[in-house]
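call fold(seq) -> tokens
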Amino acid sequence: MAETKTQILIVEDDLDLSEMLSAYFKVQDYEVLTAAWGREALDLVQANNVALVMLDIRLPDIDGYEVCRQMRADRHTQNIPIIFLTEKRDRVDKLQGLELGVVDYITKPFDVQELRLRARNAITRAGRQTSSNPVTELPESEIVDGRLGELLTHDDPWAILLVAIKGMSEFRESYGFVAADDVLRAITMMIKNAVREVSGLDDFVGHLAPEHFIVITTPDKAPTLQKRVTTRINQSSEYFYPLRDRETTHHKPDVEYISIQSGILQSGGEYADIEALKTALLASAETPSEPS
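ret:
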């Protein structure tokens, strides 16, 4: 049976450049798709198993920023690495691309061998990160499911602390992806520090979902850990916002700001499988605590 080739998509409206890159990467044993329009590119990433997109910023219909934005907003395409190919050299343009989740940025004219290495590295990094959150670098998906599955067969008592961050979508819309990612990294550090202080390095910390953290610990430690994590995040929440907004941030009842829900699930219940365990864990969350 023939081995499946890694598939890449080149989005470039300069047909000569597109043909050159396509021919080059085919020789490097990639399967190459090409598109000259942004909307065509979005259709192709939906219909194929693309491992990498090389994306020009200037396109005839929608620009590369919008293509990237729509890919990142879609669960099917949000983790596909994107390399911008562009003539733009301005720092603001690069920051805009990085904010949208572009993994690399190469300006024209470029060395095609350098592009090949960058493409290879981006695909390799993406493969390594499939079971870890790209922002917090905490384990998720298969790794978390594996740890939860182990609990179903454990005789020793266990507890799971759920920490759910509420209001991140509104925060992201107001302040952008970079600021939202910084908040998630700060919360990750608070949780890790609390775990270190209460349990040493024995507890498992991961993601049930991008904004749902879990800590697998023991029943005696879980309440202390819950109180410490919740208190620290609530005390720090106002500093997540720019200084100009701090005085008014928590005084608008019609707007949802960042807050915490937490809950503890302990061994002893009847859980048919991992999904049943997850459902019970989500149901354990308490009423959101008020930011202090």
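Confidence is low (pLDDT under 50) at residues 287-292.
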